[in-house]
């Protein structure tokens, strides 16, 4: 834990050169291999960090896994069931390879759409069918979820709780309480460096900024 008892969740997306067409705006979350390794070394030295990778890119396996293993680190991988086996994305064998090295597999849903305002059939597809597909790929239960595009609302969180997810990860850029069911994360963005991330995450936020970020989280939960 950090000095004030918080946990820092750090989230990566793609690393290196994408091997598929990116979604609009997605390139902001792709980082080069060297910045990725430098940032991984930086956060590995922090007192309480949990690392995750979203979207199930092939770079999870080709760059992320060896870098984690080299440093004796583990991470949670939030995979998109609908992209399993597609060019540039993990397939079932890749998911099992991550598991074999002690990584956790979570769900990021089926099709990388917002989980807000879904009709019942879409809820089933995104929260139930995608999880079953990932469970089959991983060969072990999938109980973690990360909200695509960082979007969520109260109805969604109720559905995730009813379905028995044990931790749900967002992208709200603030420290987390270690035991909390809802876990905010800091996503690493293109152009981030160890110093920029340290300045944003570890510098003690002003009272104003803390209150504002907490208010963002409350507003989303009540929406
Ligand atoms: Zn995503």
CATH fold field value: TIM Barrel
Distance between the termini: 30 Å
Which word captures the global form?
globular
H/E element sequence: EHEHEHEHEHEEEHH
Helix content: 25-40%
| Overall tally of structural domains | 1
What is the tally of beta strands? 8
Count of discrete alpha- or pi-helical segments spanning 4 or more residues? 7
Name the CATH class. Alpha Beta
Could you name the ranges where pLDDT drops below 50 across 5 or more consecutive residues?
Answer: none
Q: Any idea what the radius of gyration is?
A: 17 Å
Question: Would you tell me the overall average pLDDT?
Answer: 93
Strand count, sense and barrel status of the largest sheet are: 5 strands, parallel
Q: Which structural class matches the secondary elements?
A: alpha/beta
Question: Largest beta sheet: what is the strand line-up?
Answer: 4-3-2-1-8
> How much of the sequence is in beta strands?
5-15%
Annotated CATH architecture: Alpha-Beta Barrel
User: At the fourth CATH level, what is the homologous superfamily?
Assistant: Glycoside hydrolase/deacetylase
Bound molecules: zinc ion
């Amino acid at each position: 834990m950090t000095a004030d008892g918080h946990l820092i969740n750090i989230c990566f997306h793609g690393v290196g050169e994408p091997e598929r067409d990116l979604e609009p705006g997605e390139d902001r979350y792709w980082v080069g291999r060297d910045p990725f390794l430098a940032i991984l070394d930086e956060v590995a030295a922090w007192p309480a960090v949990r690392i995750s990778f979203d979207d199930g890119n092939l770079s999870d396996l080709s760059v992320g896994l060896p870098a984690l293993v080299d440093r004796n680190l583990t991470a949670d991988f939030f995979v998109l069931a609908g992209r399993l086996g597609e060019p540039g994305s993990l397939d079932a064998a890749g998911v099992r390879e991550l598991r074999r090295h002690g990584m956790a597999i979570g769900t990021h849903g089926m099709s990388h759409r917002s989980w807000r305002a879904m009709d019942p059939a879409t809820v089933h597809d995104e929260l139930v069918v995608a999880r079953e597909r990932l469970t089959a790929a991983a060969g072990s239960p999938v109980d973690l979820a990360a909200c695509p595009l960082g979007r969520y609302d109260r109805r969604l969180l109720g559905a995730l709780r009813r379905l028995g997810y044990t931790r749900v990860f967002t992208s709200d850029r603030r420290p987390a309480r270690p035991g909390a069911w809802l876990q905010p994360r800091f996503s690493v963005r293109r152009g981030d460096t160890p110093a920029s991330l340290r300045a944003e995450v570890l510098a003690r936020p002003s009272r104003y900024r803390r209150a504002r970020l907490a208010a963002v989280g409350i507003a989303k939960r009540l929406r």
